């Protein structure tokens, strides 16, 4: 019995439980995301009775892989391996007995719930009988307030569900419930982390990368592809728009003062990204900017960039330190991809001393010499789109 792998999983969510009227929608999305994440791993069915989700596993289901996948399903607060047995009292006792030797514990609590009210033994009586049984078996004492272990027994209509350990899930909101956003993704460290943060808040992210190929190698574009593929594990389906940006940069370089270049690049990125965001139905743009990290990210320059934005620009890393961003990048596995060498479009034609406070009039003067609409159109029309589906690497 102790060698018998769990044949179910109980998944708990917390944040979404707070969302009142939206709750059924959140739960439905969470179930759908769990389904997507565990496709072809032997999940037989998923049910959602009373405030939690239960996965029924087929015999021989890929248990460890399923648990690994749940770690990237946002909205899961915690999950427990669970054993589904017949509802007979002996079978329940036997299952609990098998769970005891795993780890020693000094105190415990029984938590029985009778979902099926026709079950002959009432919850209180189950708690008492099973409690005595565990006391005898383990030598541990009952502690209702602060137990080291809780044994859950739930009586479903035809089966009993028994579980004890809780593992932390990633938390957050299920991807899809907060609406679509369009991320400006470079090949760098920050923008993939920013994208991850918003997925964790329930947004579906589509990606836009600006490259200067063929002025430089395709390295940054390929990195963006690799990053998007990696991040698709959290949302199951992604689109990456690759925008040719070399010509825009070339024209900015020939007509604008060097110190203004970076801010001008960013304004064009926002204008083009916005057009693509409209196609995607995205409600906001998303960047990896954080105050003061580089010259283009002072409050003054952020305001100058934002002047051309019709959509809100989300900057989830705005108050993060670089080392904090790197920690997340390492946790989610984007870091090794991001630090591969590339030729980022913005390092091409980058001036040695970018303006820390670009003045709006100077920017407007510089842009007056450019065919703004024409350049935006060129970017949008030159786009190459690629789709990514989870598990299709
Ligand atoms: P990152 O690590 O995300 O590249 P960074 O610290 O290097 O950020 P910048 O290069 O100033 O900062 O870029 C600021 C933000 O502008 C990025 O986080 C990203 O959202 C966007 N961005 C920069 N370059 C590109 C690009 N080539 N394609 C798409 N978005 C870009
Ligand atoms: Mg960068």
UniProtKB/TrEMBL annotation:
It catalyses: [ThiI sulfur-carrier protein]-S-sulfanyl-L-cysteine + a uridine in tRNA + 2 reduced [2Fe-2S]-[ferredoxin] + ATP + H(+) = [ThiI sulfur-carrier protein]-L-cysteine + a 4-thiouridine in tRNA + 2 oxidized [2Fe-2S]-[ferredoxin] + AMP + diphosphate; [ThiS sulfur-carrier protein]-C-terminal Gly-Gly-AMP + S-sulfanyl-L-cysteinyl-[cysteine desulfurase] + AH2 = [ThiS sulfur-carrier protein]-C-terminal-Gly-aminoethanethioate + L-cysteinyl-[cysteine desulfurase] + A + AMP + 2 H(+). One of its GO terms (cellular component) is cytosol. It is an enzyme of class 2 (transferase). SMART domains: THUMP. One of its GO terms (molecular function) is tRNA-uracil-4 sulfurtransferase activity. ATP binds at residues 184-185, 209-210, 266, 288, 297. CDD domains: PPase_ThiI, THUMP_ThiI. It is found in: Cytoplasm. Pathway: Cofactor biosynthesis; thiamine diphosphate biosynthesis. InterPro entries: Rossmann-like_a/b/a_fold, ThiI_AANH, ThiI_fer, ThiI_N, THUMP_dom, THUMP_ThiI, tRNA_STrfase, tRNA_sulfurtransferase_ThiI. The keyword Hydrolase does not apply. Its EC number is 2.8.1.4. GO terms for biological process: thiamine biosynthetic process; thiamine diphosphate biosynthetic process; thiazole biosynthetic process; tRNA 4-thiouridine biosynthesis. Residues 64-166 form the THUMP domain. Catalyzes the ATP-dependent transfer of a sulfur to tRNA to produce 4-thiouridine in position 8 of tRNAs, which functions as a near-UV photosensor. Also catalyzes the transfer of sulfur to the sulfur carrier protein ThiS, forming ThiS-thiocarboxylate. This is a step in the synthesis of thiazole, in the thiamine biosynthesis pathway. The sulfur is donated as persulfide by IscS. Belongs to the ThiI family. This is Probable tRNA sulfurtransferase. The gene is thiI.
């Amino acid at each position: 019995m102790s060698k018998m792998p769990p044949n179910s999983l109980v998944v708990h969510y917390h944040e979404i439980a707070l969302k009142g009227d939206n709750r059924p929608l959140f739960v439905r999305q969470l179930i759908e995301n769990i389904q997507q994440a565990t496709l072809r791993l032997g999940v037989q069915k998923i049910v959602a009775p009373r405030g939690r989700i239960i996965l029924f596993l087929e015999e021989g289901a890929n248990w460890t892989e399923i648990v690994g996948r749940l770690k990237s399903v946002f909205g899961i607060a915690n999950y427990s391996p669970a054993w589904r047995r017949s509802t007979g009292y002996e079978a329940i006792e036997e299952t609990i007995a098998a769970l005891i030797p795993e780890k020693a514990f000094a105190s415990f609590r029984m938590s029985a719930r009778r979902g099926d009210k026709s079950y002959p033994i009432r919850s209180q009586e189950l708690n008492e009988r099973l409690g005595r049984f565990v006391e005898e078996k383990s030598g541990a004492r009952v502690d209702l307030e602060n137990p080291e272990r809780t044994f859950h027994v739930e009586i479903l209509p035809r089966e009993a569900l028994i579980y004890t350990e809780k593992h932390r899930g990633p938390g957050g909101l299920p991807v899809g419930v907060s609406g679509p956003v369009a991320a400006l993704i470079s090949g760098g460290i920050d923008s993939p982390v920013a994208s991850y943060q918003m997925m964790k808040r329930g947004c579906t992210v589509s990606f836009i990368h600006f490259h200067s190929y063929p002025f430089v190698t395709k390295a940054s574009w390929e990195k963006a592809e690799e990053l998007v593929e990696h991040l698709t594990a959290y949302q199951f389906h992604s689109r990456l728009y690759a925008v040719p940006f070399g010509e825009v940069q070339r024209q900015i370089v020939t007509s604008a003062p060097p110190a203004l270049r970076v801010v001008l690049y960013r304004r064009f990125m926002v204008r083009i990204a916005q057009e693509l965001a409209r196609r995607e139905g995205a409600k906001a743009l998303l960047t990896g900017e954080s105050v003061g990290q580089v010259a283009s990210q002072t409050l003054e320059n952020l305001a100058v960039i934002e002047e051309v934005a019709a959509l809100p620009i989300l900057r989830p890393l705005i108050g993060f330190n670089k080392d904090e961003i790197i920690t997340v990048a390492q946790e989610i596995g984007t870091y090794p991809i991001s630090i591969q060498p590339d030729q980022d479009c913005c390092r091409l034609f980058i001036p040695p001393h970018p303006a820390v406070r670009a003045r709006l009039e100077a920017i407007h003067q510089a842009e007056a010499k450019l065919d703004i609409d024409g350049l935006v159109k060129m970017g949008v029309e030159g786009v190459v789109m690629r789709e990514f589906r989870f598990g299709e690497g």
